[in-house]
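Just wondering, can you check both lines?
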Amino acid sequence: MSSPEVLDYEIVDVFAPRAFAGNPLAVVFDADALSTEQCQALAFEFHLSETSFVCAPTEPGADYRVRIFTPFAELPFAGHPSVGAAHTLVRTGRLGAGTLRQECGLGVLDLVVDDDGAQLTGGRPTLEDGPAAAELARAVGLSPADATGLPADVAGCGLPFAYLSVAPHLVDAAVPDQAALDALGVGEGVSVLSWDAATSTAYARVFANDLRWGEDPATGSAALGTGVWLVESGLLAGEGTSSYTVRQGDKLGRPSVLSCTVTASGGTAIAATVRGSVVPVAGGRIRVPA
């Protein structure tokens, strides 16, 4: 049982094919009374890429509200905290399986939860011009010649990321330069990726601004934006719904699998989803900061 002095929490691995893979997430229950400063202190204590704080909803039709924090900042939305929180609420019996409506800083979003994981429908797709691909390549420690020639657009379904397409053997060679990336102003982060058309699979590494340009082992929001970028780049169909997979986290020893769809009309993405498995690994109680 939770009390005002102590809160229950769980640690789960999200987009994980097994335990100790994917992206770890802390889910803190009954967080309504916490201030922003207390949430931030707890997120820094967990020191995972993100922590989800579950609260009662305030919007009509929502089943619950989640506040999402990195160790350094609050986010309006993120993929793996949304998927992980929804599945954990169902697995622990707090909500029933099926379609859940999650309130977050982006609004109210739908998730479909089953025994293995959850599927998230992202926000409205956005797309804008990014930096020159050659400049972005330099900012992640690669040569301008390493870019494949596709535009480094900034795309998203809630959080915008820049996408740099390189050859498969170059993805793991990227080393972000924080100052150079800050100077380019590329949104929430950069996804350095290669595309395998035969399997409709992207192998990606994502460097996130809110993690001080650290590497994220699985990034649901970037996977959603990948679909927007793939349609814009002509790599997926400009009409109808296409499926694709994002592999991430291999270089960190946390292999992750993000199963996605993107729906397009007139050559433009109009919706995207991301799905992944959620594996519980730990649970306990944590003191509430003063």
